[in-house]
Amino acid sequence: MREVWELTLASLRDSYPTEVFEPWFGRLEYVEKDDPNELVLCAPSFIHLKQLKSQYQSEIQKKVDEIAGRPVQLTFIVKDPNEGAARAQSSQESESHSDEHADINLLARKSGLHDGLTFETFVTGNANRVARSSAELVAQFPGEKYNPFFIYGAVGLGKTHLMHSVGRKLLENNPHLKLLCISAERFINEVVDLSSGGRLSDEKIKKFDNKYRNLDALLIDDVQFLCKRGGTQQRLFSIFEALLPKNKQIILTCDTYARQLSDFDERLISRLGAGLSVSIEPAEFELRAAILLEKARQQDVHLPLEVAYLIANRLNTNVRELEGALKNVIMRATVFNRPITEELAKEALQGISGTGRISIENIQQTTAEHFNIKIADMHSKSRVANVAYARQIAMYLAKELTQKSLIDIGNAFGGRDHTTVLYAVKKITKERAQKQELNHTLHLIEQALKNWN
């Protein structure tokens, strides 16, 4: 049966993109049994198994029977996520593990972490794979690797989710860890409160210092809001100086690369540069579809794959907008008591577009401004290196951020052939995965486009 399952997995891998295959089929484990007509598979959780059976069991069964050449009994069991063994425990043991899980949830909430933001619910693709891998290392070796850890990217791409995932894992590994996860806005309010009434309070300062300087891990979300706040930055720098020498982990999220922060203490930027900075890029199509499937699974909703693909193709901005679109689809299905189909999804998404006001003209102008060239160069036949490269980047962004065809994009760039556009898209896609500097450039242009007025 092991060979049958391995061949079935290979067939499933060919049928689905990696971002769908890995979370659903890649996490199933083969269980050795004596019966030659029974295939036993172990799922990582009851939730995973419920969604897997509702969406994919019939297809798995069909492939298994075809490969085995006879009917095979397909049996699923569930692994205990805490012990890594099949769940065949007494009710007393189950209650014990449930209590332990509840204790971690309570600790997480007290530390400022949000329920549900875990590595298990973080969907991974090309856009966030490096950030995810780095975060897992930070969680495994806090204070030893990548300290401070700086996660940056545009709004709604999963920075907060990833940071909370690290925090959660740190507490699971060490429930006695002194961890605090806080928003930059709340941190600012606490610093302002030190001088409420017009003068600094020694008692409040002492309490503030004791709170932050004795932490084992500090997580701050959206540090871009600290820009132009010199007093708050000074407090944060003092905390850095207290925690980093003692190998206490610091994790920050931001909407831009550290060096792009304006009116920000150079000493803090230097400290950030000494750690690791990773970016989360806009999700590619396959990742968007996988995220939708995961979000539906979390709500115990059956989302057909073709509907996930439809929504992912319609919205190409950020995860929050994907969630909003999914809610619209689910709500319409609930209100009208209809199954979720492509037809219903199209009705629910009428007028919704992830590209907003971004047009090819916007992209051309913003890219030209970034590279300090003329807009006319986007349409010209010039092959000067910096002009040609800027033009290729603009073509790539036009394909990523609009729903225009390759032919339409080519026409907008001086009547170029669609094969020229395809070449540019493939080239920039490949280089983006290899060159951090290009990642930064694309991130800045994308941010400027999202702020287009």
How would you sum up this structure, described in words?
The protein has 453 residues and is of the alpha/beta class. Helix content is 55%, strand content 9%. It is built from 19 helices and eight strands. The strands form two sheets. A five-stranded parallel beta sheet has the order 5-6-7-4-8.
Secondary structure elements and pairings:
Layout: H1 2-15, H2 18-24, E1 29-31, E2 38-43, H3 46-68, E3 73-78, H4 91-110, H5 129-140, E4 149-152, H6 159-173, E5 179-183, H7 184-193, H8 202-213, E6 217-221, H9 230-243, E7 249-254, H10 266-273, E8 276-279, H11 285-298, H12 305-314, H13 319-335, H14 342-348, H15 360-371, H16 385-401, H17 406-412, H18 418-434, H19 436-450
Parallel strand pairs: 2-3, 4-7, 4-8, 5-6, 6-7
Antiparallel strand pairs: 1-2
Helix pairs in contact: 1-3, 5-6, 11-12, 11-13, 13-14, 15-16, 16-18, 17-18, 18-19
Quickly describe the structure.
The protein is α/β, with parallel strands linked by helices and 453 residues long. It has helices at residues 2-15, 18-24, 46-68, 91-110, 129-140, 159-173, 184-193, 202-213, 230-243, 266-273, 285-298, 305-314, 319-335, 342-348, 360-371, 385-401, 406-412, 418-434, 436-450, and strands spanning 29-31, 38-43, 73-78, 149-152, 179-183, 217-221, 249-254, 276-279.
Number of strands: 8
What number of domains? 4
Q: In the CATH hierarchy, what is the superfamily of the largest domain? A: P-loop containing nucleotide triphosphate hydrolases
Amount of helix: 55-70%
Radius of gyration: 25 Å
Subunit structure: Oligomerizes as a right-handed, spiral filament on DNA at oriC.
Protein name: Chromosomal replication initiator protein DnaA
Domain AAA+ ATPase: 145-284
Main location: cytoplasm
